[in-house]
Amino acid sequence: MTLVPQTIDDAEVPLRVVVDLNRCQGYAQCCFAAPGVFDVRGHEILFYDPAPPRARRGEIERAVHACPVRAIRMQAEPGVTQ
Amino acid sequence: MSGVDTPGMIVVGASLAGLHGAEALRLNGYRGRITIVGDEPHRPYDRPPLSKHVLSGELAADATELPQRADLDARWMLGQAVIGLDRHAHTIGLADGAVLAYDKLLVTTGARARPWPVESGGTLGNIFTLRGRDDAARLRAALVAGPSRILIVGAGLIGCEAASCCRSLGLPVTLIDPNLTPLARSLGTWVGGVIADCLKDAGVTYRPNAQVLRFEGDATGRVVRAHLADEHVVEADLVIVALGAVRETGWLKAAGLMADASGLTCDAACRTLDADGAPCPDIYAAGDVARWPISLYGDRLISVEHWGNAVAQGGHAARNMLAPADDQRPYDHLPAFWSSQFGINIKAVGLSEGADTVAIVHGSRASRRFLAVYGREGRSISAVSFDQARWLPAYAEAIRIGGAFPPIRDASDQDRIVSGLPGFPPPRRVSGSQVSGSQVSGSHVSRSDEARHA
Q: In chain B, which residues have their Cβ closer than 8 Å to the Cβ of A53?
């Protein structure tokens, strides 16, 4: 019934990222920490990849911590039950 | 309530609000069983990208699954529609006949896109609505097929975001709305005029003050044109109906709660009300489906479809579900939404309904970079920024405390404050006010009946 992959160490399972864009103030620190995963377009539109590859985990963790308003949330472990 | 042998908590609606509610139960120390039931086969996903990057093809529709706590430890029942609630037996019924017992229930069933009426062409092929992940995937596939002209009905946030995406793909677009400018219900025509200019620059054919009466199909049942109230005809082989949303309360019809197509009524503590207006101590609601008295605006009953409300109210309801009856805290919320379209970042706070004045307090409409504040009887009630989001928190604070209008004067970059009439269309009366649009837009928009044509 569920479509979520179950295996934590499966390299194919993407990370899960969401940004609270009400909170985001466009400091763009995430874009420096994880270029490409986060990108500012135009004057202040933040584009981000909500399902980046696992290999970017370290960079995205830095982006999470670098965000001055703590607007980024990442899930690295599937943490699935049933 | 915390033992694993009790039925535990059921969250109906595997949504943003439902996920945040379930997570907040754990964050607040609940160790019992949590069951999350959803009618879609998907884990909770984020809607804002659907009308933007998914339509444009930058993201796959299945990329927007939301992060969740690793220790959520929920029982997921996905692809299962809930069809009934028996408050006295403390059970819900599923479409497959199963009956689930609960100790407490959190209703986060949200809303669905308002469909085009069947009798005026609603069943023709290539007519789409955009609300869920599957809607976005279907619409994206149809856009890839290269329609010769797209007609978008309704210039709320979803309609405008879709228009922006379709133009970025080089597809011809006609956008129809009953109002003078896009976003007229949410921002007024004075500010909406800026988006009208963007539409023009982007090559969208905008038809203001227009209504579609019916769609006509070809021999194969695919839409080919729209007939308008002014007797004009618009040729279009793909239609996006963006007329707001209807709350998912049909399953509560026989539940004896105060529920209708515009929401499930709650008290300030997110407890649902029964038909007599008494709060149900074990049934809470949050997110798009919930209609509650908002203290900041005189306890007006509203439902808010914004992303931020789903998150905050889901969490708040969960907190109260675990609290004793004498510690039910009121939900205090300042609505906020964002959208991006035509390269502009739009962010707003507060409810603009009833505004009698709007002022550009930073920037200018001509530059398409500005912050506008809406006032009512001398108080600041809402604000919107176009590519000037850095100012918004200061104005949000002023709105939260009911500050004077305009709240900030003599700022170093304020040349001159230009003000005017907001230009809101006359209100439509529905049962309870709705601040809606959709999380698809991130966002908001429109009262759910905003651009209703039919």
A: none
